[in-house]
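Hello, quick one for you while I still have it in my head. A protein chain has come my way and I'm curious about its shape. Can you walk me through what the tokens say about the fold? No rush at all, and the record is pasted right below.
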Amino acid sequence: MTKYGVSKSTFIGAARRGAVLVMALAILVGASAIASASSTGNSIVVKVPFAFSIGSSTLPAGDYTLTDKGNEIIQIQGSDANVLFRAWRADSGESSKRASVVFHRYGDRYFLVGVQSADGAKVVKAAQSEDEERLAKAGAKPRIVTVARAAR
């Protein structure tokens, strides 16, 4: 018995039950967060005809699926790539017939800049990479290149 009238084994048993309860709640919250992220699931499929950079990754030309994972995270998946990047939302006010992916081109280098929905209401902008920032500071002017979503 302890000085408060509870045995040491009763105290340890209660602590274990509490720990199990906390772990169960953590698993439940984690599972609901995953379900929420996958239900966000707005994605587009594009065929990018050139190699491009996003952050510190360079991806080859090919077919890519870009998926909004929620919480400002976009996933790019291709046959040879799986990249996550942080982006923020903005309104462009422009509309197009199909969703599109926007790149900045400096000479023969391409940098992913954003993703736009077909109605123009949703625009996701990627953070500028260090390489693109260096080119911009050196005075290089980018050309805007847009790749439209593949027709279904």
